[in-house]
């Protein structure tokens, strides 16, 4: 299909055909562009039966390419080793076969450069003639001269395809009989880009329309995708020789996405949701150094901070990490291995404060997802800080406005913080009870034990009544909520699932329910603060007045 006119489609046999009416009619726009050697076109097979499926024939234009930068420049390569070029839309053609390409080579791919009309890349092979050498050629003058460019590709690894990356001039990908190679200098040098790709023949490849992914078609009848090419677009000798380098992340989309995989099967897996960050470390950071990967909001405020470690961390981007409000907490981890590192931030703000062991029914402490905007990744290692901006974009298929998403985010932050209020109170109540219970236990046979015990029990009973209204203390398993109804913390947390169920502004009903529940929690928190402000000081004063020592020693008889 033409780059300049979507109604123009080309097809090839031994000549080039063109249609402008979706194939209702065709016109011939070239002479025979092959060797047209009739001795190579005899029937195949015999003597009992023939085997003519047409793939046995020579004299076929095997690859065809239209320049994406200059209208009318067309390239043709045949399976019998002829290259021709037209610069006037097919009215005239000129032979442009590389001088160093042996006769009867199969021209597998011609890739017209997306940067310069006179530049094209050619891959050819001769394995059917017992020649397994790689053949890649480059022209920059419409085929008048060619250069062979295969340094770095093994002698016995023949080539099927070569493509230039449309985002970076001179960045090339080659598909061979055994895998993928990359060149950063217009093919002067090649190196493997195999990663986890099996050693299979790569018959074709394409950079996706968004220009950020490399899709390869194997002769094993599978597609493989290198999900993110942006590190290759930015990699150069200077970056590779630095002690640390942070690559600018590609734009990410707020979409959630469904991910499916099955271990041991050949089913594909979606790329992770969120922002993928790549960074290079020449050596792991010294233990004495503080090495972090941080993410900042559009106003420059810290959202989350991840500590760099050499052990293999989770690739989830801290799904449950960074608890608390604002940018508090650096408990999640990011990799700090020598060489290239990859980390995925799920674009979520820190979670609400959690109560260890608490079980919720339909509620979550998960932090809200960021709104679309320009964010910043910041890598600090060895006393040096690197930062890169990146875009988090709205799903273009949705009609929600930026204001809608901001209103949703603000509401979810309110819910998260109110859940934190509830859980912080529960944790504080449990801490007070644990300390007072421990003190009473340590008193043992102390003469003031009863007075302290009675005072502690009276205070703790009042605290416990508040705790049991905030959180259901009887739930021990996921199904226990059927027997023991959820309490305020769970009711407030369940609003997160309601408000975040779609990318839209929260409903009035959701706000009304939140206001009611928040008011109930506020009443309980007032009672809690009243106890902490009155009963707890009275209890402490009682302990001081009884001159109870900080360390109570048990009586032990002295040996005789």
Distance between the termini: 105 Å
Strand order within the widest sheet?
A: 20-27-26-22-23-24
Which sheet architecture does the biggest sheet show?
6 strands, mixed
**Mean residue pLDDT:** 91
**Can you count the beta strands?**
27
| Secondary-structure arrangement, i.e. CATH architecture of the largest domain | 7 Propeller
Top-tier CATH class of the largest domain = Mainly Beta
Low-confidence stretches: 318-330
Alpha carbon gyration radius: 35 Å
CATH topological fold name of the largest domain: Methylamine Dehydrogenase, Chain H
**Secondary structure category:** alpha+beta
Q: CATH homologous superfamily of the largest domain - what is it?
A: YVTN repeat-like/Quinoprotein amine dehydrogenase
> How many separate helices?
6
Question: How many structural units, i.e. domains?
Answer: 3
- What is the global morphology? elongated
Percent helix = 10-25%
* Strand fraction: 25-35%
Short description:
With 560 residues, this protein is α+β, with helices and mostly antiparallel strands. The protein contains six helices and 27 strands.
Attribute tags:
elongated; 4-stranded antiparallel sheet; Methylamine Dehydrogenase, Chain H; Immunoglobulin-like; 560 residues; alpha+beta; Four Helix Bundle (Hemerythrin (Met), subunit A); 6 helices; 6-stranded mixed sheet
